[in-house]
Known about the structure:
The protein is mainly alpha-helical. The protein has helices spanning 5-11, 15-25, 28-31, 39-58, 60-88, 95-114, 116-128, 130-149, 160-185, 187-194. The relative contact order is 0.08.
Amino acid sequence: MYLVAPVFWRVSRSDRALIALAVLMFPLCLMVQRSAGNPLQTAIHFLPIWIVGMAMARFFDSFKRFVQTQWLSFALVISLLLAWELFFVKGTHSNWSVLGKLLSGMALLAVFDAFQGWISNQFEKLADYSFGVFFLHSYLITAARLLMDYSSIENPKAGLLTLGAATVAVLVLCVLILRATVWLVGSKRSRWLVGV
Length: 196
């Protein structure tokens, strides 16, 4: 990625060239699978997403206007992709999953921009807990995995919705544990225990 960055930087100086590059290269992330054993193949898989990100940064105002006028169509396409992955795709690393994640990410950018005042306040609060969340989340995930392995609870099907629900659940549990720790031992001692 870093080796080809200067080439894309030069191309991105032209609006038309950047749009053409994003459109022409995007099919690569659907045609080329990521591979843990092949870094070059994985780089080719993710390269179009990087280019689309460059285009999003350049044309974000135009994208916002599009979402404001076509939000229903945009939401419908994302919902269909999420449903497709939930019911017809195994795992969370399919090529269709990449497309769904990319469009979901674009939608989140639009939502964050529309509600940036309220969201920034919430993220500021979350930032106060960020180290504690980082410290605790792996323990909660491991505990949940052990609970499912040694009980009759079935592992949920993988998919974007499952991933999203699990992320929110772990985040909420982490914050509750951190707040309880601060309440029980005080803020001075909790910094030593959980970093908050």
